[in-house]
Amino acid sequence: MTCRRRLNITVKLVSHFLLLWLLVTSQWLVAQELPPNVPSQPAAAASTRPATGLERPLPGEEVIIRAREQEKSGDIYRLRGEVEVSFRMFTFRATEITYNSASGDLEAIGHVMFDGGPHDEHLEASRATYNVNTESGKFYNVIGTVGASFRGRNVVLTTSNPFVFSGKLVEKSGRDRLIVHRGSITSCSMPKPKWTFEAEKIDVVVGEDAKMYHSTFRIRRIPIFYFPYVQHPVENLGRQSGFLIPTIGRSSRKGNILGESFFWAINRSADATIGAEYFSRRGWSQHGEFRARPSEKSNVELRYFGVFDRGFGPTGQDQGGQDIRLNTDIELPHGFRAVTNVNYLSSFLFRLAFSETFSQAVNSEVKSVVFISKSYNGFSFGGMSSRYQNFQSTAPGDRILIAHAPTFEASSVERRIGGTRAMWSFDASAEGVTRREPDFVTADLVGRFDLAPRLSLPLIIKGWSLRADAGLRDTFYTQRLQPTPTTVGTLINDTLERHAVEGAVELRPPSISRVFDRTVLDRKLKHTIEPRVIYRYVAGVDSFPATIRFDARDILSNTSEVEVGFVNSIYAKRTGNGKQRECAPEVQPERKGNENEAGTIAGEAAVPKRCEDSGVVTREVLRWELAQKYFLNQDFGGALVPGRRNVFTTTADLTGIAFLTEPRRLSPFVSRLRVLTSANTDVQWNLDYDPRKGRINASTVLANYRIGDFFFGGSHAFLHAPGEVMTLGPSDAQERFSQFRILLGFGHPNKRGFSAGASTGFDANFGFLQYSSAQTSYNWDCCGVSVEYRRFALGSVRNENQFRFAFTLANVGTFGNLRRQERLF
Fold it and tell me: What kind and span of H or E run contains 178?
């Protein structure tokens, strides 16, 4: 007994010394952390303790207390004057705080502030009760934020979705859940937000979303809309399923427009959007979109748009239809790649009547292609199917259809022959093709087999570049044409084999250059001239009139020609004497999939710095290319038909404008000019001048300029196409095309304050305004409004005025029918 009692007394004595040492050292460490303006000793009576203390209510956890005055009665601490209580990741601040270290209960009064947590919660209240152990409590008369860190008077956003709320009572249930009673939420700055969602109860899960029941959307305290249930994202942690904000609008042809959509976040790699709109004058429209990223290098996108039309005009013409688009890009095992770009359009009339943009409405082409390919060691192999439609008018069946199904292709890059300078390559294909148009239909499957081996010899002698190449081409068809004077021809079920010998010699003399000593705008200039002379020869194509035209392989003709051209370039480089603009990184969206209001699969990726005006990069400020061909074989081996529009490989390679209606020696003079003096300036002018007829065949001018928030864009397209078939206008107008496009604006979509833009399209040939639009927007700190007027004039099919708007709420979405991809700027 005596030994046991002595051992017990010794242990208790040593334990008291250890506790005393911990108390002294902990008080010393905390005293070192006191801010300079908080005294370490209170100025009150002797019953008070030092201004800081440290308790351990739970094993391994600390509660640090700071205050000007502190009284302790058992486990109860009464703190007054700039009180701060820190525990775990949270901090309480108030004028007075009573804290029970045994139970963890805390009561705060006067200028209560609660901060911390993994999502940077910040609450300001008149009073609060809280338990530091269970992390739950009640706050009264609250204004709070999530996703914003307060550092003195500065506020730093720690998330892209800052969240502001207020309420008469806020219950904190656990670390990440808040229940707001008789409160509101917004993304605007308090205390006078631009917009709010007000509700009797708001269930907030920090890091996920806020659920509002029986809420009212208000703008400047004015009630706008009632929602029985609304979800608001509290932090941008991913896409979530749910109904999107309804869309409304007005159109002179469609009437009142009301629509709704549902977004389905299938998983982290796939989502879908389905919805419908009701046109009071026309009927129902449906739209859907599916997006997926099966792997890092693969994506799938499917879009659908359709209209059930009740009929238009006195005759009740049904202009409804469907437009379906499928785009995929999939990386397959063993280095194979599969790409799908399929577009189905039920009728051109539907596109004219219901497309939302002018450029899409007047596009008469529908293209689809599916292919799988593999490249290995310079060789490429693949299979393909394609379908091309060109609608000639809105009449049913008035279209040209060309299909390739199936097609197998193989090709190679140029490869050296042994140790010589000679190179070889080849191109081969085996395919089934078909063509259908009014009054002309080929077989369902016309076989076409093509093989083209080629040899080349590049030489460089004292700065002179000489390249000679020669090749053979053999093409076999299972069906052919019997030429007729007035029509395309008569189809004959007989084979056709085309043999061709091709050769070319390209000579490029040394470039001529000069560096100017005199600087212009602190830039040193260099002028270069690069001439070229190319002779081409093709023989053996004696069956051109009997060849069915499917694509570019079928317009090969005999030729003997010389092409002369040269390129003028002016380069500019800063000298360093002036003030240089620093390169700034840009952040732009990486479009792996289309965005919608519910989120996007792809995020944002930083692109390389733009250093065009820095002293380390030389810019090509002007490039002017001139070219012309001289034809030794004027009738192209009998392929040219006088009085008709003729398109051959040699003319298509020079210019996209068909100019051959009769034999001739000289081609039009082709000019391609581009001026790019800065990152904000871009001017292009493409001109085809025919010296034989003394006229301009084609001229296209594009100009874009931006200075500060002001921007300008304009274009003029002129075409004089002899032999081109037009459907409207007098005979002289059938060969002419002249249209102007103008875009003016100020600002950009994310600019704070006022922005505006206007665009118009005018047909100078027929003298009428094809379309016009004007848009204005104003953005505040947490919301923005855009209003647009748009007019279409597409003949008897569509003469429509549209009024569209969009009201955008930061971190919520857009209300209205003005889509982001259809805006002017």
Answer: strand 177-186
**Cα–Cα dist 189/658, whole Å:** 62
3-class SS letters over 777-810: EEECCCEEEEEEEEEEEECCCEEEEEEEEEEEEC
Q: Is the C-alpha dihedral spanning 395, 397, 398, 402 positive or negative?
A: positive
Find the distance separating the first CA and the last CA of the chain, reported in whole Å. 94
Contact between 406 and 382 under an 8 Å Cβ cutoff? The reply is no
Which three-class secondary structure string do you get for 661-695? Answer: CCCCCECCEEEEEEEEEECCEEEEEEEEEECCCCE
* Residue 85: partners with Cβ closer than 8 Å, 6 or more residues away: 63, 64, 65, 66, 79, 91, 92, 97, 99, 106, 132
Cα–Cα distance measured from residue 342 to residue 406, given in angstroms and rounded to the nearest whole number: 15
DSSP H helices, 306-460, are 348-354, 358-361
CB crowding 728-761: b at 16 or more within 10 Å, else e: eeeeeebebbbbbbbbbbebeeeeeeebbbbbbb
How many Cβ atoms are within 10 Å of 557's Cβ, its own excluded? 22
For the question of whether the overall pTM of this predicted structure is more than 0.85, the answer is no
Q: b/e for 198-212, b at 16 or more Cβ within 10 A?
A: bbeebbbebbbbbbb
CA distance 289 to 262: 11
Which runs of consecutive H residues, i.e. helices, occur in 380-487? Answer: none
Please, what are the averages of pLDDT over each run of 10 residues along the chain (825 residues)?
46 40 32 37 32 42 87 91 89 94 92 86 93 92 76 45 83 87 86 87 84 88 85 66 84 91 92 95 95 92 96 86 96 92 95 90 94 94 96 91 95 93 96 93 95 96 94 96 80 94 96 91 92 97 93 95 97 70 41 34 35 62 97 93 90 90 93 92 95 91 93 93 48 69 89 92 89 91 88 87 86 75 67
Instruction: Please give the helix or strand (H or E) that residue 322 lies within, else none.
Output: strand 321-331
Instruction: Tell whether the torsion through CA atoms of 596, 600, 602 and 608 is positive or negative.
Output: positive
In a 10 Å sphere around its CB, with 0-12 CB exposed, 13-18 middle and 19+ buried, how is residue 674 labelled? middle
DSSP letter (8 states) at residue 344: E
Report the distance separating Cα 400 and Cα 548, nearest Å: 14
Encoded tokens for 632: 């030794």
Rounded-to-integer distance, Cα 51 and Cα 56, Å: 17
Distance of CA 154 to CAs 92, 120, 150, 151, 226, Å? 19, 14, 6, 5, 35
The two beta strands, 154-157 and 247-251, are unpaired
Q: How many CA atoms lie within 13 A of 144 on its CB side?
A: 33
Length of the chain as a residue count: 825
Concatenate the DSSP letters of all residues of 481-515 into one string: EE--SSSS-EEES--EEEEEEEEEEEEEPPPEEEE
Strand partners, 371: 339, 384
How many C-beta atoms surround the C-beta of residue 288 within 10 A?
A: 17
Measured between alpha carbons, how far is residue 697 from residues 440, 671, 719, 736 in Å?
30, 12, 6, 9
- Position 735 scores a pLDDT of 63
- List, in order, residues 6 or more apart from 801 with CB less than 8 Å away: 251, 252, 789, 790, 791
